[in-house]
Amino acid sequence: MDTTALANLLFPEVTETPADLEQRYPPRNLPEGARVCRMAPSPTGFMHLGNLYGAIADERLAHQSGGVFYLRIEDTDQKREVAGGVETILDTFSQYKLPFDEGATLTGDSGAYGPYRQRQRASLYHVCARWLVLQGKAYPCFLTEEELTAMRETQAAEKLNFGCYGDFARYRDTPIDLIKSLIDSGKPYVVRYRSEGDLSKRIAVDDLIRGRLDMPENDQDVVLLKADGIPTYHFAHVVDDHLMRTTVVVRGEEWLATLPIHIQLFGAMGWKPPKYLHTASLMKMDGGSKRKLSKRKDPELALSFYSEKGYTVAAVKEYLMSLLNSNFEDWRAMNPEKPLEDFPFSPKKMGTSGALFSIEKLDDVSKGVVSRMSADEVYGELTAWADRYDPDFAALLRRDEAKTKRMLAIGRGGKKPRKDITAWSDAKTYLSFFFDETFTPDYTLPETVPAGAAKEMLAAYADLYNPADDSGEWFAKVKQLACNFGYCDDMKAYKQTPENWPGSVADVSNVVRLAIAGRPQSPDLCEVMQIMGPEMVRQRLDRMMGAL
Ligand code: GLU
Q1: Cβ < 6 A, ligand 1 pocket
Q2: 422 — phi, psi (to 5°)?
Q3: CATH (residue range 451-547)
Q4: pLDDT for 199 beyond 90
Q5: Which of 120, 166, 424, 536 maximizes the CB count within 10 A of its CB?
Q6: CA dist 235 to 157, 189, 268, Å?
Q7: Index of the ligand 1 atom closest to the CA of residue 54
Q8: pLDDT in tens, 500-535
């Protein structure tokens, strides 16, 4: 076969060789040990936890080593692409504060190893594919969909492996004249790699978390370029990660099965493969057994779920880090104040079996993170969330900034801060009693207090109430109220002989709480009343008295 004639026939426009590309994209000038990692999402409009999970690993490996973290858009599958898909990717990473050093941006590219969108790299793949054709390692294949289906049926009937290999690779040795006439007649074709791999031979590949992998060679003639000249994932991965000088490819374990193809293609191009790190899939417990998180069944797989609910970025990252590195929680316990970036992230501490994701666990982490934030920080993040997802609530929060911050400050600071808020969407319910617009009281009384007594208690309390009372004075008055109505004002005594009283001071204060907050639990009531001010407090007392 005259491979030069074939290469010229298939790629008349290509003038460069891989050696030219090597010069255009030279090895990066980085210190010893610096890692180059990339995030390579497809612009499908759907960003999921797995993307973020991998990206945190990429970002840490790169930046912890003084290396480069870049973004490549894998847009070879136009059918799956949605308008605004790239924006969604960029938005997500900026929201999660994973700073790319180079890559695709909204306004174009930044960096010397671009273009960073695969469809714009077509000419580079063609240079490499042409070179493989020239070496006799690639060829055009004209098998139609129908022929491929028939091939599959034969293979199924004869219990053979599926795919295009050996004798099934019918176009391997097609004479150039026939190729030319097929092309001239407009018959579509793909470019396939001519595999000399043998399934009975083994290859060894090292994975940063899985150690040495022993795998069969690839015997399939995989497609390098599709009929439209756009590469498959396999070929694009090899060409891009080489020319962009990636040193560690972090990707999901679903790519393990095709790793022998990638190793083979790197070899064919005469390139050294990067290091690989195949991450474990995110799993969840479902009815007593573990399964992979699924796009169809699990809304919590989508990153939009966390934005809409208003989980803090810090909490989601913190939780994912605990799934990525088994020693993270211990480190966090020892270093509660340190930024996440100080944690020495290590592939050695990554698990190979599925990482078990639990929303309850995330909620716990989240409550802790929010409880340690200052009222100012909470105000900033909460209003930004509400501006986007609940503008009416945002307007209430912004009506009196100083007052809202006082509401948010209750129970903050100190050793045991309150943990009322998991995500910002909880805040509306939590704060609802502070605003008449969102106040929806449930006046169900404690069993120990009949409605008539409650009404009288509230009237008596209205007389005792003084907005200037500090918490000591406030509580003394509630105790006094309890005594006046024959309720026990000493909880210890009450617990010993509850039958001696109709109820305790806790029941009496709960009646006041129901009036003010409309529910039996609230943060410190004295503080709540101070923030509300006398006018609202009196209105609330009147309102409940009117309802009894
Ligand atoms: N575009 C591929 C994906 O989204 C990237 C896999 C990789 O990181 O190599 O699954």
Answers
A1: 40-42, 74, 237, 251
A2: -95, -50
A3: 1.10.10
A4: yes
A5: 424
A6: 31, 16, 11
A7: 8
A8: 999 999 999 999 999 999 999 999 999 999 999 999
Among 255, 262, 266, 275, which residue has the most ligand 1 atoms within 8 Å of its CB, making it the best to mutate? Answer: 255
| SS3 of residue 70 by DSSP | strand
Give the whole-number percent of the chain exceeding pLDDT 90: 95
CATH architecture of 3-15+122-279: 3-Layer(aba) Sandwich (3.40)
Domain boundaries, the chain: 3-15+122-279, 375-438, 451-547
Whether 371 contacts 417, CB under 8 Å: yes
| Token output for 348 | 């050695």
Protein residue whose Cα sits closest to atom 10 of ligand 1: 41
H or E stretch covering 156: helix 145-157
What distance in angstroms lies between residue 251's CA and the mean position of ligand 1's atoms?
6
Average model confidence (pLDDT) for the chain? 96
Please identify, by atom number, the ligand 1 atom nearest to the C-alpha of residue 254: 10
Å from CA of 40 to ligand 1 middle: 5
- The rounded Å distance from CA 262 to ligand 1 centre is 13
